[in-house]
Write a structure and sequence with these properties.
By secondary structure, the chain is mostly helical. It has one domain. It contains three helices and four strands, in the order ααββββα.
């Protein structure tokens, strides 16, 4: 149980830091439309965003009011998915 708490705390801290950087990035680009996301070639199945040229980990979905998604071309996004799966597995095994 203690390991799960430590992992959850670490993920929450990383998520807060990333959110802070994303907010700064959004304010910086608020007057510029991101043409990288508009390109349909970067979306697989309409829901998976994969663009190695885009440095962001979390990007707006194609329809922006639907929320955010991960850029699966970034190694950090794969670590986030692995951490979430690890927490689920540890929670089931406890």
């Amino acid at each position: 149980m203690k390991v799960v708490s430590i992992i959850l705390t670490f993920i929450i801290i990383l998520a807060c830091l990333h959110l802070l950087f994303e907010i700064i990035h959004l304010f910086y680009l608020k007057n510029h439309k991101n043409k990288i996301i508009i390109n349909s070639n970067n979306w697989y199945g309409g829901i998976f965003y994969y663009n190695p040229d885009d440095q962001r980990i979390i990007v707006p979905k194609r329809i922006e009011w639907l929320g955010w998604t991960l850029n699966y071309a970034r190694p950090t996004s794969l670590l986030i998915i692995a951490a979430i799966l690890l927490i689920i597995i540890l929670g089931i095994l406890q």
